[in-house]
Amino acid sequence: MPDDTHIPSNIAAYLNKRAAGKPWEISESPPCTFSGAVVIPSLAEAANLPRTLESLSLNPADLLDRYMTLVVVNQRSDATSAETADNLETLKMLPLWKQHYGMKNLFWVDVASPGRELPPKQGVGLARKIGLDLALPLLNYCDNDPLLICLDADTLVQSDYLSAITQHFARSSAGGASIPYRHLPSGGLAGQSAIDRYELFLRTYVLGLKLAGSPYSFHTVGSAMVCRSSAYCASGGMNRRLAGEDFYFLQQVHKTSGVVPLSGTVVHPSPRSSNRVPFGTGRAVGDMLAEGEQRLLFYQPVVFSIVGEWLARVEENIDADAPMLLNCAALISPILHDYLEQAGFRDSWENMRRSNRSGTKLKEAFHGWFDAFRTMRLIHELSDRAYPRIEPEAAVAPLLGHAGQVAPASIGGQLELLRTLQGDAKN
Q1: How far is CA 152 from the centre of its chain?
Q2: DSSP helix/strand/coil, 122
Q3: Is the pLDDT assigned to residue 100 strictly greater than 50?
Q4: How far apart are CA 198 and CA 271, in angstroms?
Q5: Number of other residues whose CB lies within 10 A of the CB of residue 224
Q6: Which of 17, 157, 305, 377 could form a disulfide with 161 if both were Cys (CB 3.0 to 4.6 A apart)?
Q7: Burial class (CB in 10 A: 0-12, 13-18, 19+), 266
């Protein structure tokens, strides 16, 4: 087991103040340190996890030697009997899978046995955090800034997965990255239609943010994100949210060290429905299958135009005081003006101006305040009060046109075009 003397002070400070802590520990002490860790939370995934491990095992042997894989088998104390039985099966099978797939650097954490479960109302956020925090002391900080990679137990990766990640961070100065993704095919027509619609919704939202000039125009998919260890600690580490942990985590990483899209590989999340979390892929697919696809409507293109106009006015008037910027906002949209007032922009902007004398620093501070969450809240406010959500046929084509593209007629065609534009073309 590596000792603590190799851990840099910033990593040690994070571990002392913010690490998930006991009673959780890794299945065995690794004999060496690693260039990175692939952390996989697993709740009742005995049927899916072997496929994920197999896909990972097909990566180059030299990279598998340099990276550890850490599975966090987890459940809450109120888990169903089926989940408990499935997790016990997973814990029993992991030593066999380690041998079968030739993954000598496969380890796991028992967060499922009595006394080790997640606290009430906790879920995937804390499960990810436990794995990421436990991996930190096992990484090699001598020659590089080791990587923390988030994957899911029902997601497949390609044989170029670790290569693309390693090469990206050798070139990029940003602390984090979003990995291209495309959902696996569904088992039936209804399921395929639902997952296509949901993925198109996600991609259209990111396209709208990009056209608006938002610095947060990147995907936030939990099974498709990676960061440097230093960026992880600087951002405060993974949050403990039951859902949306990926959104808030990448938002914070971007604020502290930047997030950029990665290219060269694609991860393939599951398209299945699920009721484990209050929102996200599984919930959206399940709701559409139960209630119809009209359950998921799209934002009108005008809301992204309003966001874009607001960002442009701030950029053009970076030396202005709060009343002037709020007047600009009122001319763009009274709803925007009201939202900014309610969000405390007036006082916040003046505080930002006092604390950031240069225009560059002030812009950074503004985007730290008007972040991905506040942007999303504004879009929701605009949609609720003036621009009701609409069917994708009316929402996607105008945005693609604004991006200089001719929109295909079908959802499937639009989805494929967006996958290509966003670097997620099928490999």
Answers
A1: 11
A2: coil
A3: yes
A4: 10
A5: 27
A6: 157
A7: buried
* Torsion 357-359-362-364 (CA) sign: negative
Which has more confidence, 358 or 420?
420
Pick the CATH number of 4-181+219-272 from 1.20.120.450, 3.90.550.10, 3.30.470.20, 3.30.300.30: 3.90.550.10
C-beta of residue 45 within 8 angstroms of C-beta of residue 86:
yes
Assess contact for 133 and 19: CB atoms under 8 A: yes
Task: Give 343: exposed, middle or buried? Use CB within 10 Å, 0-12, 13-18, 19+.
Answer: middle
- For 167, what's the count of Cα atoms within 13 Å in the CB-facing half-sphere? 10
Length of the chain: 427
- The sheet carrying 106-111 orders its strands as 106-111, 67-74, 36-42, 147-150, 225-228, 176-178, 259-261
Cα 52 from Cα 39, distance rounded (Å):
12
Whole-number Å distance between alpha carbons of 238 and 234: 11
Nearest to 42 by CA among 79, 14, 12: 79
Angstrom distance (rounded) from CA 107 to CA 53: 12
Residue 74 sits at φ, ψ, to 5 deg, of: -135, 155
CA dist list (Å): 54 to 60, 73, 324: 13, 17, 58
The H-assigned helical ranges of 294-358 are: 301-316, 322-332, 334-342, 345-355
**Alpha carbon 412 to chain centroid, angstroms:** 24
Confidence of residue 357 (pLDDT cuts 50, 70, 90): confident
pLDDT band (50, 70, 90) for residue 427: very low
Per-residue pLDDT tens over the stretch 273-286: 555 655 556 666 66
Letter string b/e over residues 282-318, b meaning 16 or more CB atoms within 10 A of that residue's CB? bbbbbbbbeeebeebbbbbbebbbbbbbbbebbeeeb
87-92 long-range Cβ contacts below 8 angstroms, 24+ apart: 87/42, 87/43, 87/44, 87/46, 87/112, 88/112, 89/46, 90/42, 90/44, 90/45, 90/46, 90/49
d(CA 249, CA 251): 5
Read off the amino acid at residue 178. Answer: S
CATH 3.90.550.10 placement within the chain: 4-181+219-272
